[in-house]
Amino acid sequence: MTKYKLNEPDTVVIGGGIVGASLAFGLARAGERVALLDEGDVAFRASRGNFALVWVQSKGLTLPAYSAWTQKSAKDWHQLSKVLLDETGIDVGHTQPGGFTLCLSQKEVDARLSKLVAFHNQPDTPHFPYEILDHNEVKRRLPAIGPKVVGAVYSPLDGHANPLLLMRALHSYLNQKGGEYRTAHTVDTITREIDGFRVKGQWGEIRTGKLILAAGLGNVRLAPMLGLEAPVKPSRGQLIVTEKTAPFLHNPMVTIRQTNEGGVLIGDSKEEAGFENITGTGVLSVMADRAIQMFPRLAHLNVVRTWSALRVMSPDGFPIYDQTLSGPPAFVTSCHSGVTLAGVHAMTLASVLARSGRLPELLAAFTPKRFHVHTNS
Ligand SMILES: Cc1cc2nc3c(=O)[nH]c(=O)nc-3n(C[C@H](O)[C@H](O)[C@H](O)COP(=O)(O)OP(=O)(O)OC[C@H]3O[C@@H](n4cnc5c(N)ncnc54)[C@H](O)[C@@H]3O)c2cc1C
Questions:
Q1: Who's near 112: CB < 8 A, 6+ residues apart?
Q2: Which atom belonging to ligand 1 lies closest to the Cα atom of 163?
Q3: Given the DSSP bridges, would you call strands 131-134 and 151-155 parallel, antiparallel or unpaired?
Q4: Considering only CA atoms, which residue is closest to atom 10 of ligand 1?
Q5: Of 6-15, 271-280, 361-370, where does mean pLDDT reach its minimum?
Q6: What are the structural domains of the chain?
Q7: Taking each helix axis from N to C terminus, what angle separates 163-176 and 64-88, rounded to the nearest 10 degrees?
Q8: Per-residue pLDDT tens over the stretch 294-325
Q9: I need a surface site. Which of 65, 78, 283, 330 has the fewest CB within 10 A?
Q10: CB 52 near ligand 1, within 6 Å
């Protein structure tokens, strides 16, 4: 029989992907005893197949609170990667050299520009620094670009990291602090009791005073057990990785980045394809073709792997944060930019949840009630 260190942890987090692991890290850092339950390899796990940008530019059009949250996260990331390095010895490869969105036509530049203007014209918008660059200026900063690059948007706030090392470091930190990361722990049912929750699966059951749902696409089924909702759907993204090559790309682009090991990641499509996480040469060849136009040297590299993964997408693309209004505290968190938001989840949100047991007021904008349609009929 499995022996657990924690019979009744302060908090159970369901879902050991980037979102759940970041929150579990922060709760453990705040002194809580945390159990992180994860379904394991059989599950859809966006955290293991993503593009790993810590991305600020373009986030928050129509919901300025999302831009503020993202910008805060980009700041918190510095502290997160430092704590992880100091405490676990794992360098998660986080850098913030600034990121580019490359455009292959004037139409693309104009579309970007009008989005940026619309973004900055919104009331209460936390502005972020950016520059619109023409071909010559992009060439000066990124000598490897091809002649078809017409221009780019650059923001110094953008960065990237290694998501698999991030996961390993978060899990390792949790373990060091006396928490538990339990894999092959699919949660089947959750029962609310007067002073807490009973969480059950085929592996047994665990009781806790506080519960966080961070199960990605699994939140759809789990949230209603707590009277909460997480109306997320899968959005497929396909990716390509090339063989390793000498460093030529210091900065991340929205669809191309060179990892610190030397491989070049080319991504990532956005497709509505249900739970079919397969790849197809049609989409991959369009992605590869655009990437080669941006950086012609990519044509000489071999592709070593392609894959697809499913984003956790809400109806408007923004995160969902919600909580129970009475009784023992339970929360649901769902988002499609879990790498970007790892900083703020780990360093800010988790400590507020540990301290107050409530979501911070600034997350009220992310309630799933925004999807409730009111009609007069
Ligand atoms: C192609 C692609 C590219 C991306 N690029 C970026 C990017 O550049 N930058 C960025 O910030 N984000 C990016 N993302 C998004 C990022 O990967 C996700 O936001 C993040 O992985 C979501 O994390 P999560 O922990 O919520 O979900 P997941 O990674 O899906 O993890 C959920 C976990 O919950 C577990 N689970 C589910 N149901 C249960 C249950 N009943 N019981 C127990 N456990 C359960 C699963 O085992 C899983 O491990 C990308 C995603 C994709 C797919």
A1: 58, 101, 103, 132, 153
A2: 17
A3: antiparallel
A4: 337
A5: 271-280
A6: 11-52+163-231+316-369 (3.50.50.60), 233-313 (3.30.9.10)
A7: 60
A8: 999 999 999 999 998 889 999 999 999 999 99
A9: 78
A10: yes
Q: Which of 50, 162, 306 to mutate to test the pocket of ligand 1 (most atoms within 8 A of CB)?
A: 50
User: How confident is the model over 197-227, as pLDDT tens digits?
Assistant: 999 999 999 999 999 999 999 999 999 999 9
Q: What is the ipTM of this complex?
A: 0.98
**Helix, strand or coil for residue 44?**
coil
Q: Is the CB of 38 under 6 A from ligand 1?
A: yes
Q: Is 230 in the pocket of ligand 1 (CB under 6 A)?
A: no
For ligand 1, atom 12, the nearest C-alpha belongs to 337
CA dist 33 and 44 (Å) reads 27
Residues 6+ positions from 284 with CB-CB distance below 8 Å: 238, 240, 306
Tokens read off for 74? 């980009």
* Residue 279 amino acid letter: T
Q: Ligand 1 mean position to 13 CA, how many Å?
A: 14
